[in-house]
Amino acid sequence: MSDRRALFDLSGKVACVTGASSGLGRQAALALASAGARVVCVARRAAALEDLRRQIGPAAAAVAGDVAKAGGHKALCAEVSAPFGPPDILIHAAGVNTRQAADEVTPEGWEATLALNLSAPFYLSQAIVPAMRAKGWGRIVNFASLQSSRAFPGGIAYGASKGGIAQLTRAMAEAWSKDGINCNALGPGFFPTELTQAVFDDPDRAARNAAQTCVGRNGRMEDIDGPLLFLCSEASSFVTGQVLMVDGGYTAK
């Protein structure tokens, strides 16, 4: 019987992770490297990226840049392809949440949220897909959210972007899966990251969120590893266009 653990082996693969300087992006980079991938870590904060690159070692490279910069995605594609070759795996973990109430949303806040959370995953994928298509294999993983399907206070711009991510994921799958490029999304629940710091700074609120899950707790960073490796590997060869909620059952209740 073949060793089914090989289904999750990423040896020989190149992964690009945006938002890798902190939070779930950083966790994703560590998980992919532990499974054998060479990882290109992308974010704006060069010092934090360098710390991560040193932690991973020779299998990592760092590219400091703004993935939301309009018109810059072809150049960014060239940068992330330089260290190890074009990525086989692309993780879109960069994100922002302005937490502006609906009546207080500014044009600047709205545009910044949509540019980073929704436009950047499409345009960077569009730039990288030709190399994946040439190899006949690729994995794109977007980051959805509880707010892809739920409305939270102060989340109208963020929720719009994450609702868009769910549909973008399906549309990417329709466009590119025939070329061997599977496109899926992870929908994290409440994890202790910079984006959710305000939630975890309020113990009562954090406890209410934990109680809303089926398992009775909020997420731990390592909870994302298994679902991510599944969607990035041969294990998910017949899975595309899906949003996998990693929320402890929050959306099931």
UniProtKB/TrEMBL annotation:
Stored InterPro entries: NAD(P)-bd_dom_sf, Sc_DH/Rdtase_CS, SDR_fam
GO biological process, one term: fatty acid elongation
Molecular function (Gene Ontology), one example: oxidoreductase activity, acting on the CH-OH group of donors, NAD or NADP as acceptor
Family the entry assigns: Belongs to the short-chain dehydrogenases/reductases (SDR) family.
Name of the protein in its database record: SDR family oxidoreductase
Organism, as annotated: Harenicola maris
Lineage: Bacteria, Pseudomonadati, Pseudomonadota, Alphaproteobacteria, Rhodobacterales
